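Action item from last week, closing it out:
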Amino acid sequence: MKVKICGIKDLTTALAAIDYGADAIGFVFAESKRKITASKAKDIITHLPNEVLKVGVFVNETKDKIEEIAAAAGLTHVQLHGDETPAFSESLSLPVIKAVSIEKDLNLKEIEDYPCEYLLVDGPKGKYRGGNGFAFDWNSITAKDLKGKKVILAGGLHAENVEEAIKLIQPYMVDVSSGVESDGKKDLDKIQTFINKAKGSQTGGTRNEFIYTTE
């Protein structure tokens, strides 16, 4: 099972997450308490392994701004978390992760036809479009409902429920942000535990000591 740790703001946390087994790191460029600048994201991304996905999260941003930030920061993927149209998604130069909130009136067929490489299914909208820590009814959807899509499961995940969520949804990847935080900041022990649970391992290497410091 692949894991994405989102809302990263410093190099120490990014490297620790990767050391624990994270496959993707998310940087939020939309309004959020986890918002980061392109310059700061670049400082982090420069030190990350090539095989790790570097995902930029945007909400109803212009194409020019997305492309500008993606190039400046060194992103490999763009996550659209707003009301972006299929045509908008197709116009972008990088692979797209389209995020959708699972609501009662959701038309799964419309999602299935959306042009994107990955489909991120998230909980209900809150103050922000994502990262609110709200789960949806996992029995309401499975990856089989979205044929041809690599499904990323998000919304309200944490170490205590990620195994059940994976069993029910059978996604390609799981995505977590608030579920690995303590007092609003990323918690390295929670990140390690979450990744171990998601990948089906109860044991993991001891945390490395990094020479980098957070701001």
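Closing note: Residues 2-198 form a domain with the TIM Barrel fold (CATH 3.20.20.70).
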